[in-house]
Amino acid sequence: RLYVGPTSLDHSLALIMANLSNIKQGSLVFDPFVGTGSILISLSHFGAICTGFDIDSRVLHGEMYAGHGDRSIKRNIYENFKSYNLPLPELIRMDNHLLDRHMKSNEGIFDCIVTDPPYGIRAGARKSGRKDPVQIERREDHIPTTQIYAVEEVMLDLLHSAARFLVLGGRLSYLIPTTYDFSIDDLPTHPCLQIKYLCCQPLSSRHGRHCVVMEKLFPYTREYENQYNIYKNEILSNNSDHGFAKLKGKLELALSVEGIYNDNVVKNISNSAIKRREAKERRKEFKIESM
Predict the structure, then answer these.
(1) Burial of 60 (0-12, 13-18, 19+ CB in 10 A)
(2) Is 120 helix (H, G, I), strand (E, B) or coil?
(3) What pLDDT does residue 124 have?
(4) Res. 164: pLDDT tops 80
(5) Over 60: is that where the pLDDT of 51 sits?
(6) Which whole-number Å values give the CA distances from 79 to 6, 111, 252, in the listed order?
(7) Which DSSP letter does residue 70 get?
(8) Which is higher by pLDDT, 74 or 196?
(9) Are 105 and 66 in contact (CB under 8 A)?
(10) The pLDDT of residue 5 is above 60
(11) How many CA atoms lie within 13 A of 144 on its CB side?
(12) Do residues 269 and 206 make contact, with C-beta atoms less than 8 angstroms apart?
């Protein structure tokens, strides 16, 4: 692939996500965290009409290439699509946190939303914002500054966008990091969306990630929106005992330097790793006895 970045999604996983999303010829889809476009390529392979949003204009313009090839070659998302003879996607510099402001439609538009949100392990998320309001006379040519976009808020905004912009029966597919004591209660919920599939991919001895596929079952009425806003505020204010509010803390513990030695962290260790550890302990005991 001509254009890849440091966090580009593996092409085989992107194809699996496209398949789980039930992508068909002519499906209207979008990725609100498009990055280098790995997911859109897989969606386009199934015949989807693709749109991608990202807050970072550099990645959209091909300035985040992470490979070792000839840098004089033109490399961007469009060149990737051209190399596969796929229809070019629509790419827009847009902030997922402000989709309500950017997109005014109150009816479902997209058949699917498929994305790999930035969850802070390899790359953190950003959203528009500043402490002081922009003066009215400067708004037309103002380039917005960005601030840290907490992973909890990323996921909650994603579910809100899915409930608002998916057609009835449309699907949201996303990836989320999880620990090995993960349960379905650790996932964020929305009154209009229902989980359809859960697939786990182990990543290390202490954590993995799940592909979550949700389906929109109900229209996003004002009543549902108010209900969801209450839930969202409880999560963000740390006043909730919901599993999703505790998932970040479980991940931080599992991925900490001391996590490998912490008995409270559930680990997925292979038989060969266990044998190596036991052999190491026996060598230590033998050295002590020899002394």
Answers:
(1) buried
(2) coil
(3) 60
(4) yes
(5) yes
(6) 18, 25, 38
(7) -
(8) 196
(9) no
(10) yes
(11) 16
(12) no
For 97, which DSSP code? Answer: G
Tell which residue, 95, 69, 96, has the closest CA to residue 83: 69
Question: In one letter, which amino acid is 94?
Answer: M
Instruction: Copy the structure tokens of residue 158.
Output: 């994603």
Which amino acid would we find at residue 82? K
159, 3, 138, 139: which is closest to 74 by C-alpha? Answer: 3
pLDDT at residue 17 is higher than 80: yes
Specify the pLDDT at position 131. Answer: 61
Q: What is the DSSP letter of 150?
A: -
User: How much is the pTM?
Assistant: 0.82
Q: Which residue has the higher pLDDT, 179 or 242?
A: 179
Amino acid at 197: Y
Alpha helices in the chain (DSSP H): 11-20, 38-45, 57-60, 77-83, 99-102, 151-165, 222-236, 243-255, 271-290
Confirm if 176 and 155 have CB atoms less than 8 A apart.
Answer: yes
Q: Which residue has the higher pLDDT, 129 or 207?
A: 207
Answer with the residue of higher pLDDT: 190 or 75: 190
Name the token pair of 209: 């990630």
- Quick one: CA dihedral 242, 244, 250, 252, positive or negative? negative
Radius of gyration (C-alpha) of the chain in whole angstroms: 22
- CA–CA distance, 259 with 264 (Å, rounded to integer): 8
Question: What amino acid is encoded at 276 in this protein?
Answer: R
Contact predicate 216/166, CB 8 Å = yes
CA dist 131 and 125 (Å) reads 18
Q: Decide if 210 contacts 237 (C-beta within 8 A).
A: no
**pLDDT for the residue numbered 247:** 81
**To which H or E segment does residue 179 belong?**
strand 166-179
